[in-house]
Design brief:
The protein is an alpha/beta fold. It folds into 2 domains: 194 residues, Medium-chain alcohol dehydrogenases, catalytic domain (Quinone Oxidoreductase, Chain A, domain 1, Alpha-Beta Complex); 127 residues, 3-Layer(aba) Sandwich (Rossmann fold), CATH 3.40.50.720. Strand 1 and strand 2 form a beta hairpin. The protein is built from 11 helices and 15 strands. The structure holds NADP nicotinamide-adenine-dinucleotide phosphate.
């Protein structure tokens, strides 16, 4: 079978396509024929050695994918041959609160091998059924990006119809957050650097779209759009570089769900608005299998379809990563594994 590994060292130039023996499932495990994998910003950081430079190599990158069960080991009851499944991001986090024990060494795409392989053996407990109406390419986008957005909007955000959500940019997490927020009946303000993407965000239901390059002080028009009150939830993917604006845009008692670091992971933050405005800064780390199943149930009911920007073949993994690195995408970049 073909696999892509980060091979001799970090860097896109060290991604290698090679052959490996087909693995066999042991008791409790399933062999999954991987059809598609999707890229997350984390995968790019991992390949570049910026996520965890101590990761053991060679490593198969990419946490997210979807495929079909082709064989099961002894005692497997959760899945059957022929089932369409997705792996959970953190294989050890089944339910409840996150903990070091549940997450520590159980995340796919580092330290555990990820989805850029034609077949993967995974424990049955780390698999979730694909919503029926989705293709495997679409489903491959759900485990990390979809679930993180879901949790920011529903679990942590507790969003209600009529409330305001602010999403930043048009990447994987943000487009999912826009979709979930609209489904919840919330009103959405989106930021983007591109006028063309602004049109697409509007078409998807963003009521207000602000170009964050042309308007670096975007919190002002965002706040104005809410009648001066501020938004209920900010889905913060920019990190240190955008937090100040987010804190100005959020309402008193609102929530900033801190997810990403696209505009920097460290920097000076003025915490005074946090305490004076009673703002909740909430970190989000993907979600458990239980969260994932809740999300899939909702997606199945609403027939929501993830936005796939472009599909690359496995042998063009480097091009796919470059496409993502350039910020040229809208929604998710997918790799067709086979
Ligand atoms: N905590 C977690 O569990 C978790 C889970 C998933 C992702 N993340 C993190 O969340 C972030 C987003 O991940 P992703 O996979 O969705 O990334 P992505 O698809 O690569 O998002 C890229 C897009 O983000 C937008 N962007 C970049 N800088 C921005 C800025 N300063 N202000 C507003 N938008 C900006 C751009 O949109 P435009 O082109 O429209 O300008 C860009 O195209 C990453 O930092 C990732 O590591 C964290």
């Amino acid at each position: 079978m073909r696999v892509v590994t980060i091979d001799q060292g970090f860097g896109l130039e060290n991604l290698k396509l090679s052959e490996r023996e087909l693995p066999a499932p042991r008791p409790g495990e399933a062999l999954v024929k991987i059809s598609a994998a999707s890229l997350n910003y984390r995968d790019l950081l991992t390949v570049r050695g910026l996520y965890n430079p101590k990761l053991k190599l060679p490593l198969i990158p990419c946490s997210d994918g979807a495929g079909v069960v082709t064989a099961v080991g002894e005692g497997v009851t959760r899945v059957r041959v022929g089932d369409r499944v997705m792996p959970t991001f953190a294989q050890g986090w089944l339910s409840g609160e996150p903990s070091r024990e549940k997450l520590g060494s159980s995340t796919l795409g580092g330290p555990l091998d990820g989805m850029l392989a034609e077949h993967r053996v995974l424990h049955e407990s780390g698999l979730v059924a694909v919503p029926e109406h989705l293709t495997l390419e679409q489903a491959s986008t759900l485990p990390c990006a979809g679930l993180t957005a879901w949790r920011a909007i529903f679990d942590h955000g507790g969003i209600l119809p009529g409330q305001w959500v602010l999403v930043q940019g048009s990447g994987g997490v943000s487009v999912f957050a826009l979709q979930f927020a609209r489904q919840a009946g919330a009103r959405v303000i989106a930021t983007t650097s591109s006028d063309e993407k602004a049109e697409r965000l509007r078409a998807m239901g963003a009521e207000v779209v602000i170009n964050y390059r042309a308007t670096p002080n975007w919190s002002k028009p965002a706040r104005d759009a809410t009648g001066g009150r501020g938004v209920d939830v900010v889905v913060e993917v920019g990190g240190a570089g955008t937090l100040e604006q987010s804190l100005r845009a959020v309402k008193m008692g609102g929530r900033v769900s801190v997810i990403g670091v696209l505009a920097g992971g460290a920097g000076e933050v003025n915490l005074i608005p946090v305490l004076m405005q009673d703002v909740r800064l909430q970190g989000v780390i993907v979600g458990s299998r239980e969260h994932f199943e809740h999300m899939c149930r909702a997606i199945e009911a609403s027939k929501m379809v993830p936005v796939v920007d472009r599909v690359f073949p496995l042998e063009q993994t480097v091009e796919a990563m470059q496409h993502m690195a350039a910020g040229a995408h809208f929604g998710k970049v997918v790799i067709q594994v086979q």
